[in-house]
Amino acid sequence: MKEMLNREPFALAAFSLVILLMPIWLTPFGANYPDLLQKFAIFAIFAMGFNILFGLTGYLSFGHAAFLGVGSYAAVWSFKLFTMNVIPAIFFGVAFAGIFALAIGYVSLRRSGIYFSILTLAFAQMSYNLAYSVLTPITNGETGLQLTLQDPRIIDNAFTTPGAGLPETNLFGIDMSGYPGFYFCAVVLIICFFITRRIFNSPFGLTLRGIKSNQNRMGYTGLNTRPYTLTAFVISGMFAGLAGSLLAVTDPLAGAERMQWTASGEVVLMTILGGVGTLIGPMLGAWLIKYLENIFSSFNEITLEHFFSFLPEGLQSFAVELASLFVGEGWHLTLGVLFMLIVIFLPGGLMEGWRRLLRRFSGGGGGKSEPAAAVQPAE
Amino acid sequence: MDAILLQLLNGLDKGGAYALIALGLTLVFGTLGVVNFAHGALFMLGAFCAVTFNKLLGLEKVVVDETQTTAWGTALEIRTPYIESWFGEFGSFLLNYSVPVSIIVAIPVMLVIGIVMERGLIKHFYKRPHADQILVTFGLAIVLQEIIKHYFGANPIPQAAPAAVAGSADIGAWLGLGDGLVYPWWRLVYFGFSAAVIAAVFAFLQFTTYGMVVRAGMRDSETVGLLGINIQKRFTVVFGIAAVVAGLAGVMYTPILPPDYHMGMDFLVLSFVVVVVGGMGSLPGAVLAGFLLGVLQSFASMNAVMTIFPGINQIIIYLVAVVILLTMPRGLLGREGVMED
Predict the structure, then answer these.
(1) How confident is the model at residue A101 (pLDDT cuts 50, 70, 90)?
(2) Backbone φ/ψ region at A328: left (φ over 0), alpha (ψ -120 to 50), beta
(3) Which residues of A touch B318 (CB under 8 A)?
């Protein structure tokens, strides 16, 4: 079984099957509706891309949301200026995010460790501040960038007469809302999985892992590490841009809050939760977080009261009071607590937990304590 | 000339806040070697100490006076804060000076919060990589700010400065520059306060035996430990002091900026930049860079500058940080061997 999964065609087929059948196997979990499924696919791409940088090279970027934001803005502008077709939008999203990542990476990667984290955080905050203030003609400030009836849309308008309402994003005539939107994102996700898998198994990926475990030694062997880290940074920035443009494809809006540090923190959490440096871990992390977010933020006092109705009166109100801290508006609190618990107790994430479980059941009591693949910072 | 002086003053109070937070960050980093992303949350908690204190003082007794009516025809409600009815003059004095007085409350509260945080969480992360330290303190920052948001709401809560210093100081007249130059008293107070706190921290480290041991521990904690000194305990106290400094910065900043739950993160990002510019692990560097960046930021928001470079006020600090990091990787006053790679 394991050998079979290591062969590329099988791995891809299995992966595609799991992704494309998501509407079926997620139904029992109550997660089978297109909005959520789209988010699953999009944030999986985002986290996978982030993992190429953090998981392989150990450089912890705290500013990845900036690339997501740039991707969204570029995609919405493509809808506004050229056409509602999603292909050019994605192209522009990825290209702009790539250029942006090249510029930021070129500067930030001169330093490593904590300096790198702070530099990327500073750049992301700078982009966020600019998007909110001076760049308002491009980003539409606080309102966010939206489609309007006055948009030129030169390519579309050259071939068809514009309808009365706002047009929908489409792929050569197929509307990108609902399930078609999900399947489109899913196909993109499968392509991204293929690319990521290739990167992981390539000599390039091996070099990146070498940089993570000891950058100095890599330098002593005569390898100039910076082009490698920069390439990884740009690739992961492009993944983020792709995710951003897909967000715009499923819902043609772009706002500055997508670039805030909380968004950057979220993708870090997804990656950590799933398992840093593993192929599918970040994707699982993204799914779990989006799923929990969906459940927890829909709770309110009434559902809670119903949920705790088996308790006696006094206990019930206490339980409701306590639980209401964590649900609805307080979902971010749950996120923060989860974040801390994972970092403290399970630094390897879900994948590490899974491996531990496997070892316990197969390794005869799990006596072997193999050194865990701890997250090494780039030093 | 007037405009330049005004911007200089403007920068000093903001710079004071940056310097105080950055000082605490550097202290923690220098002693425990931990990168504390929750330090901004301590600043925010300090500010909310002032808010809570003010709320407690402001609890009112409502007496309905049936003989008098309001303009709407309902009975007049006479509200007197309990504190006034109990203590009279002193009570109203307390209410008026609630922000400075809450310093007395904030010091023990922040000290306890700091020590609990260090013993309960950060202690377990000394040996872990910096990335883990960043992540766990980042999570803690989210938790703290969400708890505050749950109890105090998402909106900023304005706090009044004491009436005696609520107005503006006529600085122009003092310096003989004409009447045009006025500046809010409270901001001058804030600058003086931050200077005093910074001086106190430095005096503590420089002139007391305790401080000397801490400084020795920052150099080489292993040797100090071998000499039979429980250096870990002192470092915990230093963490508490850093928390107090950040908390006090927050308390006194409330009349300038109405506190809300995410003010900590806003200041944290800037304070990290300040620390990096000043030089990781250098206390004077943190203070210098704090004031420098505060002043630079206020100069960048002058109209004359804004017309040449629009939006420069939003990004000047980050730009300076990028330039400094690329030209002097150790920061302005960074020591050799601290966070080198």
Answers:
(1) very high
(2) left
(3) 122-123, 125-126
pLDDT of A328 above 80: no
Question: What confidence tens digit (pLDDT) does each residue in A203-236 have?
Answer: 999 899 988 888 888 888 888 888 999 999 999 9
The dihedrals phi and psi of A270, each to the nearest 5 degrees, come to: -55, -45
Q: Is residue B268 within 8 Å of A117, Cβ to Cβ?
A: no
Residue B95 lies inside a defined structural domain of this protein: no
* A125 to chain B, closest Cα gap in Å: 8
Residue B110: what pLDDT?
Answer: 93
Is B11 a domain residue?
A: yes
Residues 197 through 216 of chain A touching chain B, CB cutoff 8 Å: 215
Do B142 and A134 lie within an 8 Å CB cutoff?
no
B252/A104 Cα distance (integer angstroms): 36
Angstrom CA distances, B274 to B99, B110, B324, stand at 27, 23, 11
Of B139, B265, B276, which is closest to A336 when you measure between CB atoms?
B139
Using the Cβ of A337 and the Cβ atoms of chain B, whether some distance falls under 8 Å is answered with yes
- Quick check: is B80 in a domain? no
- Domain span at residue B51? 2-58+105-324
- The reported pLDDT for the residue numbered A368 is 43
Q: List, for residues B162-199, the tens digit of each pLDDT value.
A: 877 777 777 767 766 666 677 788 888 888 999 999 99
Q: Which residues of A touch B124 (CB under 8 A)?
A: 344
How many domains, chain B?
1
Per-residue pLDDT of chain B (341 residues), as tens digits, is 677 788 888 888 888 889 999 999 988 888 888 888 889 999 999 999 988 988 888 777 777 777 777 767 677 777 777 777 777 777 777 777 888 888 888 999 999 999 999 998 888 888 888 788 888 898 899 899 888 888 888 888 888 878 777 777 777 677 666 666 777 888 888 889 999 999 999 999 999 999 999 888 888 888 888 998 888 888 899 999 999 999 999 998 888 888 888 888 878 888 888 888 888 878 888 999 999 998 888 888 877 777 777 777 777 888 888 788 778 877 888 776 555 54
Per-position DSSP letters for A290-351, written without gaps between them: HHHHHHHHH--HHHHHHHTTTS-HHHHHHHHHHHHTTSGGGHHHHHHHHHHHHHHH-TTHHH
B→A interface, C-beta within 8 Å: 35, 121, 124, 128-132, 134-136, 138-143, 146-147, 149-150, 265, 269, 272-273, 276, 280, 310-311, 314-315, 318-319, 321-322, 325-326, 329, 339, 341
Terminal CA-to-CA distance of chain A, rounded, Å? 38
In a domain, B203, yes or no: yes
Nearest beta carbon to residue B339 from set A114, A123, A272 = A114
A126:B136 CB<8 A: no
Residue A113 in contact with partner chain B when CB distance is under 8 A: yes
User: In the A/B pair of chains, how many CB contacts fall below 8 A?
Assistant: 122
Beta bridge partners of A254: A145
On the 0-12 / 13-18 / 19+ scale of CB atoms within 10 A, B71 is: exposed
Could you read off the pLDDT of A13-65 as tens digits, one per residue? Answer: 888 888 888 888 888 887 778 888 888 999 999 999 999 999 899 898 988 99
The SS3 call for residue B127 is coil
How many angstroms separate the CA of residue A356 from the nearest CA in chain B?
A: 20
